[in-house]
C-alpha cells in the first residue's frame, strides 16, 4: 500500500507536494502556480485592507469620523474595490482550502486507506505550530513595548495587542485558544484560524463518508454550501469549504478541451464578475442595483449576510474561471512570472500571520510621525510590504516549513503505531 505524501496546501497552511500538481485534474504546473498566485494575491489584498484602514477608514465604510478623503470615497464607490477587500480575500482562502484539501483526498485516498484520517490528524500541528509562533511574537512585542498606541480616530482593532496581556494568556492562546476558539488577542487575524481548522475537518469528514459516490459527494457539498451561505456569518463562512470541496470533484477537462476562444468567452466574464462581486460593499454606489436582489433572498433567509453572500459567489466565479482555463494561460507557464507567483504563494501563510506586527509597529510609527496624508500612506505601504515579506521569508524557513515536516512525521508515526499494535 502506497503511503500518503505530505500534508496538503491550504490558503493559510502552504504545503506543496514537490514536483506534482496540487490538483488531481490538472497535470500542468501552470495550474498549480496559478492557485499559488491566487493565494499570494489574497494575502496581499489583506495587507492593503489593513493599511488603508489605518489611514482612510472611509475606503471600507463609505464614511469617516472627520473630513473624508474624496479619493477614498471615489474608490469605495467604484466597482474595483476587490484589490483591498481583506474580508473577501479570507473567503477566497477558505474556498481554496476546501478545494485543495479535497483534491488531495480525491487523488491520494484511493492509494491509501488511511490517507484521510492521517491528513486530519496532522491538521492541528500543521496550523497550530506557526500560530503559536505568531502568538509568541505578539507577546514579546508587548514585553518589549514595541507597539505604540493607536492614533485617535481610527478603527480600534488596530490598537492591539492589549498591553495588559500576560504570560498565562499567551500560553492559552498559543496552545489552544487561537486554534479552537479563534482568539485574536495577540494577532488579530487569528480569528480565522479556528474556522480554517474546523472547516478542514468538515471537508475530511464529508469526503470519508461520501467518497465512494462522486455525484452524491458533489451534491451534498453543494446543498450544504448553499444552506450554510444563507445562515448568519458565524455559519455562512463554512460554506466556502464545501463549495471548494465540490469543485475539487468536478472534471473540468471537457471545458478545457473546447477551442481557446470558447473557453475565454466563458472564463473571462466569470473572472470579471468574480472580481466585481468579491469587492461588494452594500452601501457602495456600484452595488446599489443589487438591493432588490438582496431584499428578495432575505425574505426567504432573513439572517443571510450580504457581505458574505456576494463575495462568496465572487470567489466561486474566480476559482471556476481558473479551473476551466487551466493550462491555457501563457502567463502562468514556467518563467520569471511563474516563479514570482509561486514565491508569493509559498509565503502567503507567513505573510498573513506577520503583517499585523509590521503594521502595528513600523506602520503606526510612520503614521504618528508623518501624519495622515498620501505620502505617508505610500511610505507606510512600502515599509509594511517590504518588512513583512522580509521577515516572512525567515518565518517560512524556520517555522512554517518545519511545521509541515513535524506534522507529517506525527501523522505517519501515529498510523504506523496503529498498524503495528
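Q: What amino acid sequence fits the structure above?
A:
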Amino acid at each position: 500500500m502506497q503511503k500518503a505524501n505530505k500534508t496538503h496546501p491550504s490558503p493559510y497552511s502552504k504545503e506543496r507536494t514537490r514536483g506534482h500538481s496540487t490538483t488531481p485534474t490538472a497535470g500542468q504546473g501552470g495550474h498549480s502556480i496559478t492557485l499559488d498566485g491566487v493565494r499570494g494575491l489574497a494575502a496581499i489584498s489583506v495587507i492593503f485592507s489593513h493599511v488603508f484602514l489605518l489611514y482612510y477608514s472611509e475606503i471600507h465604510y463609505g464614511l469617516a469620523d472627520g473630513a473624508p478623503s474624496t479619493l477614498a470615497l471615489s474608490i469605495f464607490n467604484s466597482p474595483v474595490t476587490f484589490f483591498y477587500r481583506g474580508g473577501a480575500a479570507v473567503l477566497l482562502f477558505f474556498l481554496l482550502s476546501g478545494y485543495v484539501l479535497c483534491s488531495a483526498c480525491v487523488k491520494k485516498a484511493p492509494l491509501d486507506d488511511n490517507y484521510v484520517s492521517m491528513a486530519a490528524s496532522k491538521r492541528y500541528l500543521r496550523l497550530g505550530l506557526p500560530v503559536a509562533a505568531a502568538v509568541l511574537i505578539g507577546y514579546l512585542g508587548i514585553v518589549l513595548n514595541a507597539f505604540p498606541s493607536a492614533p485617535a480616530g481610527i478603527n480600534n482593532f488596530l490598537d492591539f495587542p492589549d498591553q495588559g496581556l500576560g504570560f498565562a494568556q499567551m500560553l492559552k492562546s498559543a496552545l489552544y485558544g487561537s486554534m479552537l476558539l479563534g482568539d485574536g488577542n495577540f494577532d488579530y487575524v487569528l480569528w480565522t484560524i479556528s474556522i480554517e481548522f474546523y472547516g478542514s475537518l468538515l471537508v475530511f469528514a464529508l469526503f470519508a463518508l461520501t467518497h465512494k459516490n462522486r455525484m452524491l459527494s458533489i451534491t451534498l457539498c453543494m446543498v450544504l454550501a448553499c444552506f450554510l451561505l444563507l445562515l448568519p456569518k458565524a455559519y455562512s463562512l463554512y460554506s466556502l469549504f464545501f463549495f471548494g470541496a465540490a469543485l475539487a470533484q468536478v472534471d473540468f477537462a471537457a471545458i478545457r478541451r473546447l477551442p481557446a476562444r470558447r473557453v475565454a468567452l466563458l472564463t473571462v466574464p466569470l473572472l470579471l464578475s468574480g472580481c466585481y462581486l468579491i469587492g461588494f460593499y452594500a452601501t457602495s454606489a456600484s452595488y446599489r442595483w443589487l438591493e432588490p436582489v438582496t431584499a428578495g433572498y432575505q425574505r426567504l433567509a432573513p439572517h443571510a449576510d450580504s457581505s458574505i453572500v456576494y463575495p462568496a459567489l465572487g470567489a466561486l466565479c474566480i476559482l471556476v474561471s481558473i479551473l476551466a482555463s487551466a493550462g491555457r494561460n501563457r502567463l502562468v507557464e514556467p518563467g520569471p512570472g511563474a516563479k514570482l507567483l509561486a514565491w508569493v504563494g509559498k509565503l502567503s501563510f507567513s505573510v498573513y500571520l506577520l503583517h499585523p506586527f509590521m503594521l502595528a509597529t513600523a506602520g503606526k510609527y510612520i503614521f504618528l510621525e508623518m501624519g495622515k496624508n498620501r505620502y505617508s500612506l505610500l511610505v507606510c505601504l512600502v515599509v509594511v510590504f517590504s518588512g513583512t515579506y522580509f521577515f516572512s521569508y525567515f518565518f517560512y524557513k524556520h517555522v512554517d516549513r518545519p511545521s509541515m515536516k513535524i506534522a507529517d512525521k506525527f501523522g505517519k508515526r501515529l498510523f504506523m503505531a496503529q498498524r503495528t499494535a
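Q: And what stands out in the fold?
A: The chain is about 70% helix and 0% strand.
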